[in-house]
């Protein structure tokens, strides 16, 4: 099927059993699917299997629920976590930002250029700094100031907006607020954060200055899912650059921000393409 574009993605996580890949692919073919991508990984340490198929429904008569119905016996037999996504429409996402706009700007630029497979619905922020840029881009900007006393109410506003947009992913694009444990649980597997990779060695407001003072040779950033353990969620992507004694603090900051945009954008793209499967504290990514 030349130049075909997938309209469904199927993912499965379950105990590793012989013949699983053949069974899944056979059911697809039997019911009129043309498979464009097929990926699988058998994790020996956990004894679990991870599968992802991108396919075209040649019958044009199925829905995502209809495809799932074909797999009910398999789901019951293997206690499989099976998901089927209709990708005719991109995943809806909402972005949270504070004062630093480099990650936000990169995401919006790539979305506008049609190279980020998501739909950005709106932006929330605890500061006004990025309002003009966001509104220039034609997106809703929601200023949600926060104090220690108003944190529960502010987080509920974020939940309400996320639900109103029918969003599936919250992107913390240098959102400089620690989410509550309840918020982290509500967004388990649905929120991606970006942070500099100096943690825990260089904590605080000026990590690049601390790293420069220590003479580090590699700087970078990590994109990960949000969990109740601060900055310790499953890693999706990491980007690094080499530096040396000639690099100034200002250049450290610039290079560091570049790695942050690279890592976060890749993570969002892979998540939007349903390429990331969770394996406990780790991720399986079919690139």
UniProtKB/TrEMBL annotation:
Catalytic activity, as annotated: (6R)-10-formyltetrahydrofolate + H2O = (6S)-5,6,7,8-tetrahydrofolate + formate + H(+)
Pfam families: Formyl_trans_N (PF00551)
Source species, domain of life: Bacteria
Transmembrane segment boundaries: none
Positions of the ACT domain: 9-89
Pathway connected to this protein: Purine metabolism; IMP biosynthesis via de novo pathway; formate from 10-formyl-5,6,7,8-tetrahydrofolate: step 1/1
Active site positions, chain numbering: 231
Keyword field: Hydrolase, One-carbon metabolism, Purine biosynthesis
EC number(s) per entry: 3.5.1.10
Protein family according to the UniProt entry: Belongs to the PurU family.
Protein's recorded name: Formyltetrahydrofolate deformylase
């Amino acid at each position: 099927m030349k130049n075909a574009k997938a309209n469904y993605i199927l993912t499965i996580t379950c105990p590793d059993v012989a013949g699983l890949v053949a069974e899944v692919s056979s059911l697809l073919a039997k019911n009129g699917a043309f498979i464009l991508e097929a990926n699988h990984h058998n994790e020996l340490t956990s004894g679990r299997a991870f599968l992802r198929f991108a396919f075209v429904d040649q019958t044009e008569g199925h829905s995502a629920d209809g495809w799932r119905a074909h797999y009910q016996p398999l789901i019951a037999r293997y206690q499989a976590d099976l998901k089927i996504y209709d990708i005719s429409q991109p995943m809806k996402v909402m972005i949270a930002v504070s004062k630093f706009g480099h990650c936000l700007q990169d995401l919006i630029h790539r979305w506008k250029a049609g190279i980020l497979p998501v739909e950005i619905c709106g932006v929330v922020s605890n500061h006004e700094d990025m309002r003009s840029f966001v509104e220039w881009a034609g997106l809703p900007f929601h200023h949600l100031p926060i104090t220690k006393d108003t944190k529960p109410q502010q987080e509920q506003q974020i939940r309400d907006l996320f639900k109103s947009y029918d969003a599936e992913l919250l992107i913390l694009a240098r959102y400089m607020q620690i989410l509550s444990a309840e918020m982290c649980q509500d967004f388990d597997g649905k929120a991606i954060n970006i942070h500099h990779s100096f943690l825990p060695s260089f904590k605080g407001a000026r990590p690049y200055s601390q790293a420069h003072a220590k003479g580090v040779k590699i700087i970078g950033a990590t994109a990960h899912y949000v969990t109740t353990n601060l900055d310790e969620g499953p890693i999706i992507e990491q980007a690094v650059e080499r530096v040396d004694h000639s690099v100034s603090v200002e250049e450290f900051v610039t290079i560091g921000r570049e790695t942050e945009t690279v890592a976060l954008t890749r993570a969002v793209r892979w998540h939007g393409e349903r390429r990331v499967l969770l394996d406990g504290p780790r991720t399986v990514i079919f690139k």
